[in-house]
């Protein structure tokens, strides 16, 4: 029997470390080539790491929650002939691989069930097959120190819900650990790892390097809502965010300074040919910005489909590293959080971000009369190195005019 050590592989995108979220195997388990053995969280995404070796797990290197460096040992696998275990199983020696059945006569070999991608399973009840658990609930359980295997889910087929995890969570107060400035006990300490560490670095760099400015405008979105209602009567209609996204892409074609990069080493501003539209999305792992590649080539319906796909992937933790790091301009719909306006932080190395608040009925002056209209606030934060207020204001006014007169704007797109 020979032992092979599998090291944490290069995860791409210049990443050098990952947090070991969960082991998918345990010592003594049989693993096949390309079978996932661990779930890790990088600064970009949650991924499963497959084993390049087949055999029996001899050792797991690292505890769940630990930060591992690329190239450090992950698991050790004993390369054995599985046929040997099959013969032992038939002979009833009792020395069989875990998950390969019992020593009863005529028992067929059963391979250990591979844990599906991004899945934690709740305990089965009354012989039912346990259900696949969502990444958001897994993250909540991990942050609160709750063992999912010890819970009985109240959802369909024993699914563990967020409420189940919250009910099992106990506040952790370390009385002996006191904040020196306030004198208050410290409840918990949350390490800056994985995505949160990457977000911290990006936003800090943005605030440090970018001389930003903010401009905003209140926009009458009544005609936009009416147009979408008309489209719904004829079939599926794109969402409001997709419609505004199309106006944003058109605006960037007219004001390319806002779809650029500042290359400080070469002392130049690089204007990009095309738009990868980033979409700020709040997830259980934190704020991520998946990007719609070549958004300038898509219609409103095409943008709508990609928005739905990417936001779902971001919340499920399945968005790829490329999708999470390729944006050229970001659209942030903070209205879904129930707020009207915000001065966002630019997603470095981008140079601008457009924010959209919630759409609310408000009194508005139309033709000298006060009427009720549906108003939304749009705010643009931009890097003053790439343009001045005239360009920023021109872009924002273009998008606002499209929102106020969408039918006319669509005829020109």
TrEMBL record:
PROSITE patterns registered for this protein in UniProt: BIOTINYL_LIPOYL (PS50968), PSBD (PS51826)
Gene Ontology MF, one: acetyltransferase activity
Annotated ranges, domain Peripheral subunit-binding (PSBD): 132-169
Matching SUPFAM superfamilies: CoA-dependent acyltransferases, Peripheral subunit-binding domain of 2-oxo acid dehydrogenase complex, Single hybrid motif
EC top class, as a word: transferase
EC number: 2.3.1.-
Domain of life: Bacteria
Domain Lipoyl-binding intervals: 3-78
Protein name per its UniProtKB record: Dihydrolipoamide acetyltransferase component of pyruvate dehydrogenase complex
Native organism: Lentzea albidocapillata
GO cellular component, one term: cytoplasm
């Amino acid at each position: 029997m020979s032992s092979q050590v599998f090291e944490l592989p290069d995860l791409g995108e210049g990443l050098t470390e990952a947090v070991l979220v969960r082991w998918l195997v345990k010592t003594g388990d049989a693993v096949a080539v390309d079978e996932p053995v661990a779930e890790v969280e990088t600064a970009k995404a949650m991924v499963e790491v497959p084993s390049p070796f087949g055999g029996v797990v001899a050792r797991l290197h690292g505890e769940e929650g630990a930060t591992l460096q690329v190239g450090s040992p992950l698991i050790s696998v004993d390369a054995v002939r599985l046929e040997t275990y099959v013969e032992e199983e038939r002979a009833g020696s009792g020395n069989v691989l875990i998950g390969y059945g019992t020593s009863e006569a005529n028992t067929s070999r059963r391979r250990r069930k591979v844990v599906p991608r991004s899945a934690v399973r709740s305990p089965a009840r009354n012989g039912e097959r346990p259900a696949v658990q969502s990444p958001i609930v897994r993250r909540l359980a991990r942050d609160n120190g709750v063992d999912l295997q010890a819970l009985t889910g109240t959802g369909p087929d024993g699914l563990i819900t967020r409420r189940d995890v919250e009910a099992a969570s106990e506040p952790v107060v370390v009385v002996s650990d006191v904040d020196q400035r306030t004198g208050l006990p410290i409840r918990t300490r949350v390490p800056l790892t994985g995505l949160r560490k990457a977000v911290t670095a990006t936003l800090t760099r943005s605030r440090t390097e970018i001389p930003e400015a903010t401009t905003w405008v209140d926009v009458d979105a009544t005609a936009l809502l009416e147009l979408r209602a008309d489209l719904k009567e004829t079939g599926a209609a794109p969402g409001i965010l997709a419609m505004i996204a199309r106006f944003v892409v058109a605006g960037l074609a007219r004001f390319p300074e806002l779809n650029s990069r500042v290359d400080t080493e070469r002392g130049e501003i690089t204007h990009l040919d095309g738009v990868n539209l980033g979409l700020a999305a709040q997830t259980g792992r934190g704020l991520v910005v998946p990007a719609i590649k070549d958004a300038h080539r898509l219609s409103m319906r095409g943008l709508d489909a990609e928005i739905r796909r990417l936001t779902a992937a971001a919340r499920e933790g399945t968005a790829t590293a490329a999708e999470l790091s390729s944006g050229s301009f970001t659209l942030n719909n903070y209205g879904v959080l129930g707020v009207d306006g915000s001065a966002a932080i630019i997603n470095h190395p981008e140079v601008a971000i457009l924010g959209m608040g919630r759409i609310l009925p408000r009194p508005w002056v139309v033709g000298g009369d006060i009427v009720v209209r549906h108003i939304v606030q749009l705010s643009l934060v931009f890097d003053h190195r790439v343009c001045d207020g005239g360009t920023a204001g021109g872009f924002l006014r273009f998008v606002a005019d499209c929102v106020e007169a969408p039918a006319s704007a669509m005829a020109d797109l």
